[in-house]
Amino acid sequence: MKDLLTGLLGAPEGVVLYQLLFATQFTIYLSAIAFAGGGTVGALVTLLRIAPARSARSLATAYIWFFQSAPLLMLLFLFGLGVPRLLGVNVNVWLAASAALTLYTSAYLAEVWRSAVQSIPTGQWEGAEALGLRFWQTLRLVVLPQAVRVSLAPTVGFLVQIIKGTSLAYIIGFSDLMSVGKRWANAPVEGTEPFIIYPLMALIYFALCFPLSRLSLGLEKRLGTVRKTPPIAA
Amino acid sequence: MDLRFFEIYRRSDYLLLLLEGAALSAALTITAALTGMALALALSGARYARLSVLRHVAAAYVEFIRNTPLIVQLFFVAFGLPTLLGYQWPFWAHALLALTLNFSAYFSEILRSGYATVGTGQTEAAAALGLKPRQTFFKIVLPQAVAKTYPSLVSQFIFLFLTTGVIAEIGVNDLTQAGKFIDSRTFRSFEVFFTLTLIYILMSLSFKGGLAVLQRRLFRWQVAR
Amino acid sequence: MIDIQNVRKSFGDLEVLKGIDLTVERGEVVTVIGGSGSGKSTLLTCINGLEPINGGKITIDGTEVHARSTDLNKLRTKVGIVFQQFNAFPHLTVMENVTLAPRKVLGMGRAEAEAIAEKQLRHVGLADKLSTYPSRLSGGQQQRMAIARALAMSPGYMLFDEVTSALDPQLVGEVLETLKMLAEEGMTMILVTHEMSFARDVSDRVAFFHKGVMAEIGAPDQLFGAPRHPETQAFLSKVR
Fold first, then answer.
1. pLDDT tens-digit readout, C169-192
2. At the topology level of CATH, where does A2-223 sit?
3. Which of C89, C93, C104 comes nearest B122 by C-beta?
4. Among the four residues A167, A180, B17, C180, which has the most C-beta atoms within 10 Å?
């Protein structure tokens, strides 16, 4: 692959492109970890948020509120610099980046999934209750299957947000597409000027994000969406 | 583990630095929101242009911005464009341009969804009174679309504000940069960035409050309902 | 004079007007009745050029509505239209609703436009609602405001498209009163309506539309008292 690209484009262009594409895998891994971690934590928070116990609901509400209000960049600083220095331990940069992105993701997904569950008419709950189903049975058998449909589009849409979010992890020393590209852009090598490297990186990010955006849009058209999805940006 | 917030809070020079950073963050975000909104207006309008090239360019621009990270856009604007075109601006100007370009894409999509909510009855009535399409758009459609999508515009604005910390990466002395400076002097990273997080949250809440007041001012006809 | 000659109009495959001929003289009040889908409302939107036509021609005071050279915006200032849905502009006060077109289309100054608006609003009984927003008005008041909004352009002709159909029954009366007042003042009007006794009361002529054709037209006493066309008879016996 490296030889092929160097052969096609020559050095340094071929080498740079190879290194960018190689580093892209870490962007993908980190995104996958954040999505899996955030999905798991998010599911737990969603359950707390709709649980019958009031204290559980308040706790989940506070959690969602805080991690939706906190800037991702601050979470990265807190886990990449703050926690290690506070505890006086070394924290692996993968762990720090994953933790920050997981919390960030979990809050968003919990919010989306909560709205999805609560968008199911109360008549469904009452109907199930009338049949003698318990809370958790109703949730699992009646409500969730309907809620999953409408939450699919915003959930996939948020993947785009996660991928874009991973671009900030280089700030705490994570090595990915962003950090490798930035290094090349700063290097005094002809053919790696910032006006070449950054558009190239943007294209790679676009290639990862755009299909997911389209998929999300397609799902929204087919399955519908949660009426009030929180905004997505940057 | 010992938390020593006082190391930051007792130093008036640090507090002043944070205050100045917060002020610059707020000023740049608000300005970028206004210029971004103006650009968004043009972009959303271009989606209805008679010239199909214009429609496609606007759509491609919006998709491209929305599907790439802000920081890459920022670095391109701050380092790529100046080397390519041979100009140099102050850091804050690069930041303002990048944020404007970024905000505009998100706002234009919201505006577009707003236009769709204004019924054909409204445009038909305006046409029947002899108003030209331009007048109908600015006098009838736009005010109603902005009013209808105001809550979305506000939450998008807050959301974008929370991402502006990246401008510290090109050397702008914003709130995040102030935090990074204090961190480099004190090594109390947890305390510093936790404080910063709280300031960002507090500022978001203030924006939300201010924009709610503005909403009641601007859209009295809607609240009256 | 509004002169309608052999006008045809289709939406896709559906022909809704199949060659309509009608001449309305100045000062005349013509009411159009007929079942839903008879094409009567479409005719009104064609008359002021909101809808293009597929055949025939419509001329207003000698200007052909659908000719390429016609400035529709200018023409529309001569022909006011009021819709079934009031289409009040919700973000503007009653006064602003009425002054918008005189200021933006006719280029009037604010004071002049407001004087005219106030006169028209007083005329329709809304003098005390000038700075109110439409959401605070009843349906009947909104519709009267829409009438004042059209009148503020000093049109030579007024078109009314089922203006009472979206109103609660108890509000219909006030709007009909306003229309009747306009008719008595000599305004040239074409009204599409379902209010038969009102039509009989104010009209100079009544036209009955059926499936895109003007089946019958005549003086109100003749059309309501002794309808000639079997479809007119059937329609009238149903609505009574």
1. 888 999 999 999 999 999 999 999
2. MetI-like fold (1.10.3720)
3. C89
4. A167
Give me the residue from A88, A195, A232 closest to B84, CB to CB: A195
Pull the structure tokens for residue B172. 């702008």
Q: Where are the beta strands (DSSP E) in C61-174?
A: 63-64, 79-82, 157-161
What's the token pair of residue A109? Answer: 């997904």
Of A164, A171, A210, the CB nearest to B69: A164
Smallest Cα–Cα separation from C133: which of C88, C93, C86, C87? C93
ipTM of the complex: 0.92
Shortest distance, CA C98 to any CA of chain B (angstroms): 10
Touching chains B and C? (3+ Cβ pairs < 8 A): yes
Instruction: Return d(Cα C239, Cα C193) in angstroms, integer.
Output: 12
Where do the domains of chain A lie? 2-223
Residues 6+ apart with CB under 8 A from C45: C51, C81, C161
**Could you tell me the pLDDT band of residue B49, with boundaries at 50, 70 and 90?**
confident
For chain B, the domains span 6-223
Model confidence pLDDT, tens digit, residues B62-110: 999 999 999 999 999 999 999 889 888 999 999 999 999 999 999 999 9
- Positive or negative, the Cα torsion across C175, C181, C187, C192? positive
Find out whether C165 and C83 touch, Cβ atoms under 8 Å: no
What is the second-level CATH architecture of the domain B6-223?
Orthogonal Bundle (1.10)
Beta bridge pairs of residue C20 = C7
- The Cα–Cα gap between C55 and C61 comes to 19
